[in-house]
Fold this sequence. Notes:
Two copies of one chain form a homodimer.
Chain A: E1 6-7, E2 17-19, H1 43-46, H2 52-59, E3 64-66, H3 69-75, E4 83-85, H4 87-93, E5 98-103, H5 114-126, E6 131-136, H6 140-152, E7 155-161, H7 162-167, H8 169-177, E8 181-185, H9 191-199, H10 207-220, E9 224-226, H11 233-238, H12 240-252, E10 259-263, H13 268-282, E11 289-295, H14 300-303, E12 305-310, E13 319-324, H15 346-353, E14 358-362, H16 364-378, H17 384-403, E15 408-413, H18 421-429, H19 439-447
Parallel strand pairs in A: 5-15, 6-7, 6-9, 7-8, 10-11, 10-15, 11-14
Antiparallel strand pairs in A: 1-4, 2-3, 4-5, 12-13
Helix pairs in contact in A: 3-5, 4-16, 5-6, 6-8, 9-10, 12-13, 16-17
Amino acid sequence: MTDTVKYLLDESRIPRRWYNIMADLPTPPPPVLHPGTKKPVGPDDLAPLFPMSLILQEVSTDREIDIPGPVREIYKQWRPSPLFRARRLEKALQTPAKIYYKYEGVSPAGSHKPNTAVAQAFYNKEAGVKKIATETGAGQWGSALAMAGAFFGLEIKVFMVRVSYNQKPYRRALMETFGAKCIPSPSSETQSGKAILAQRADHPGSLGIAISEAVEVAATNDDTKYALGSVLNHVLMHQTVVGQEAMAQLEMAGDYPDIIVGCTGGGSNFAGIVFPFIGAQLRGGKKIRAVAIEPAACPSLTRGRYAYDFGDTGHLTPLVKMHTLGSTFTPPPFHAGGLRYHGMAPLISHCQELKLIESKAYTQTEVFSAGVQFARAEGIVPAPEANHAVKGAIDEALRCKTEGKGKTILFNLCGHGHFDMQAYTDYFSGKLTDQSYDEKELAMALAGLPSVSA
Amino acid sequence: MTDTVKYLLDESRIPRRWYNIMADLPTPPPPVLHPGTKKPVGPDDLAPLFPMSLILQEVSTDREIDIPGPVREIYKQWRPSPLFRARRLEKALQTPAKIYYKYEGVSPAGSHKPNTAVAQAFYNKEAGVKKIATETGAGQWGSALAMAGAFFGLEIKVFMVRVSYNQKPYRRALMETFGAKCIPSPSSETQSGKAILAQRADHPGSLGIAISEAVEVAATNDDTKYALGSVLNHVLMHQTVVGQEAMAQLEMAGDYPDIIVGCTGGGSNFAGIVFPFIGAQLRGGKKIRAVAIEPAACPSLTRGRYAYDFGDTGHLTPLVKMHTLGSTFTPPPFHAGGLRYHGMAPLISHCQELKLIESKAYTQTEVFSAGVQFARAEGIVPAPEANHAVKGAIDEALRCKTEGKGKTILFNLCGHGHFDMQAYTDYFSGKLTDQSYDEKELAMALAGLPSVSA
């Protein structure tokens, strides 16, 4: 009865400020460029898409930004989220390492996404916006924004990648339960959707196409703005409540991480847990190893090029410098839908260039094997995305075993897998296989990157 | 920022003892009878099915029973569970009532069931048992025991009602992820299953049949015991951690309930939250109204007869006195699979006879309407079973509004609906309708009750 496994903070300990790593980076990331002029964009260029308060957060270099009262009030529903010591997993691995995990699956939508969804809905509501258009792949972001919309009385329209819309009816049902409208993309509601459907009526869709549709709806409707669930600076910043809480909880445990692991799709859950620790390091604190884990079938950080690229397929977004596989790259349909994006958050990409983070890619079957081992030890069934972080943490713990070192490992278990059980069924039946992208397609997508003389 | 919405207790506040209402009842419930002799059963009669430690708990009249250290250690994973003040729901209802809910969906299996699953697995392991056979309807109990089996290294075999096995592949996937074996019932693995299949090869199964199969496997295999997820005294007692915690959390809030609401299938989640409060009342504390909510399509408490009956269809179990619709009664296939049982826990039935609790029945569409309203206000999508409690609590809150009374309402949100989204899809598409049982079938089932001259 002496081993603590769960570190809880009182709701008074919900962070009062988001942490902005821009303030501590030795050099700023390259500017965002206008797709036409290829000159740096100003706040006004983004005004059709976002309320000004979020645009100012996007470009802010302040170290801390106050979390509005109504946002913290809603955070109380699931924050502070628990930090667990994975004692049964440690025992199963026979590792001298200590493994901690921050569990974001306790949010009502089941992932870390509500941390930014609630903030974005709040600022939009405050700016008098009535409707928000967005896209979703696996559905975690769409359902988080749907929930936030219900809380603030905003209409939410979600363009859901058609293949996911058909394969994941339960994520769709969750969005509808929260009152959102969910549309399979490509759709006939937008010009960009119609253009794709004209080429191929049964197009399965992609995140890049769905982004184009949502951006178009926002750009062409005065009462509608756009919201993105990852990639952008302000989105990553909203997620830093995760790392700030983890730091306080590890302090309760009398510990500090040597290694922090997270999975990366657009980069927001990884940034959320590591940025506060990297910031502390940059301000003279302890050096940590921050390891981003990505799918081998969509390896932007480990195989992508660091270059200016569009965020969407329709080329409606500004150009950002990031590790990218090219905006026309279509990853194979592996189960971690939240990690199927061609690019990486510019801030994460910049951190990799600055050698503040490492990255590593794993195949689908090995991460599911790790996820099942984790579930049997700890009881929580991770989302397919989170299985990547689990695998990364287990490998670090096994390395500690080999080296006889009792290091402290922290990872972000960014969501549960309750809506992804088909993937587990496929795994057990042997239908879930390792998929790889087409090397020629990748080469073509990279060759098609926009030319920017920066 | 001043309104607390979540009351958390440190893991040191996990209850150290289960509460046994037997110690405080003014009269004991009628004895359990041997199905052959119709004389009261002794502990030895139950020994083929359960380890002696659980049998002694079943018949104990001690007020408190110590929770073993290893069980509390595992409870730490999700206990103490949060108590929420439903401020946004109160606002939506414009009620002067205060609504609190205890949320058991934070357990890794998503419901209150692990509270007893872990305890039962522990005592079986301690007794040298290698395998446990059980049944499950909707799958909440089966997945909870599967998880507990994984923690203690026990083989778990789950007979899952065939219609649910086919309709709910994701609950099955969850059990398999934890390493359990899940078999559609009726099966050809048992004599009772074969007998049913001989009559009808495509029989959809029922909870009563699945219980017969699991009991038969336990009774005929030396290394195998049986486990039940509700109904029995020791199971209800294990759930009293819920009510004990809620009492401590309401004390943090400076409050005490006037009304407590829970849904009832076998009775365990309702007993878990109300028994500690009823016990306090019986020992001279404040009188509360405890309201059991059941489905109108399977109304054991509101329409059943208080009589001796079998727990299963194959008549392998002892006879217990309970509110029952008759062991041959087959409820229509409504979505709250966890509430589709012909009988009620003897202790709950006895409490109703003693007028310590009230009961009320609702139809399926009205409880889903309440569940959707709750989800949009509070963010959590309840399980179909829990929607009954939500509806009961909302109705009490609306009554407070009519009467202008600011009462304190507590209800048990016993699980989330992530594995039940098809039901929500059906609700939104209008396919989910109110189903009623056949009055003639009920009359026949009641006419077939065993005759006991007690």
